[in-house]
Amino acid sequence: MRILKLLTLCAAVATGSVASAADYTLTISSWAPPTHGVNATLWPNLIRQMEEATGGKVTAQIKYRLAPPPAQMDLVQDGAADLSWIFHGYQAGRFTATKLIELPGYEGNAEAASVAYWRVHEAHLAAADEHKGVKLIGLMTHGPAQVHSARKITALDQVEGMKLRVPGGVGGDAGAALGATGIKVPAPKVYETLASNAADGVVMPFEARKGFKLTEVAQNVFEMPGGLYRGSFALIMNQEAFDALPEDLRAALDGKVFGEPASRMAGAMWDAIDVGGREVTLAAADNSINPASAADMEAWAGIAGQIRTKVLAEIAAKGIDAEAAHAMVQAEMARN
To answer: Which helix (H) or strand (E) holds 30?
Structure first.
């Protein structure tokens, strides 16, 4: 029994979960399965970096099922949790400028996109003040989103008429442009939505094939180079919880952890789990990846151009130089 207790303590120390060793223990509200990359990799790494930057004075613990995904912003804003991650598309009408990073046509991985996202937010998008009431500590995108379905899709026009789970944001715009009937449910509900035939397919990145077990209920992928969109996420913190920290700890977190460092780490995590999702798909005997034809890529390029025009106009209506912001995303992604 003494050995078991010692091993438990050692494991807790190794994972930074000994709350009593820290002066401040923050509560992270998280969703998606505990095995998902955000929960298994991103949050533990962020906690470790917070501890290192503050000399062990600030740590955090993950808690699940505090609120559904669309309610995470309000949960943190109200102080019921100190930190969380949100998907902007789940809250229609609340976020518009964030759709910039979701546009199709960007070249580069999620790490490059997430770093570019943070920089462009600081230069342009922050003026929209869409995260008012919380402290923004990171921005991230997942990899290119593809169509996943039980029925094999081999051509772009076959998407028309499908009942397609879309996430909101540009993902919703893409589904509508392709003639699909959009069904909006949070990612944790995707498996049961497909298993019950409430939807014919979903539009998500490759990571979902492992993270949300799409290999079991959507055995086929229709892959468009560059994807149909990239999902926009934010890492957020309760402003009062941050302000309550001593000045030196706030400076350490802002200087070494929050902002671009957290965004880069988050993007790299999405790249890694996208690889994992592709690997489990290739390993499943009843799964297939069906690449878009050259004709479909050309057709999608025209549709994507229309989506960009629409979304940039929406962003410009917020008082942002949307064209300059879009050009900066492209330039920053090419640099990273």
So the answer is: strand 24-30
DSSP string for residues in 51-113: HHHTTTSEEEEEEE-SS-GGGHHHHHHTTS-SEEEEEGGGSTTT-SGGGGGG-TT--S-HHHH
Residue count of the chain = 336
How far is it, in rounded angstroms, from Cα 238 to Cα 32?
21
Say whether both 129 and 150 belong to one domain: no
β-bridge partners, 149: 201, 220
In the structure encoding, which two tokens stand for residue 313, read together? Answer: 């106009």
Domain range for 120 is: 2-143+230-273
**In the numeric block, which tokens belong to residue 52?**
């290192």
What residues contact 131, with CB distance under 8 A and at least 6 apart? 234, 236
Q: What is the pLDDT of residues 118-135, one digit of tens each?
A: 999 999 999 999 999 999
| pLDDT surpasses 70 at 16 | no
pLDDT at residue 12 is higher than 90: no
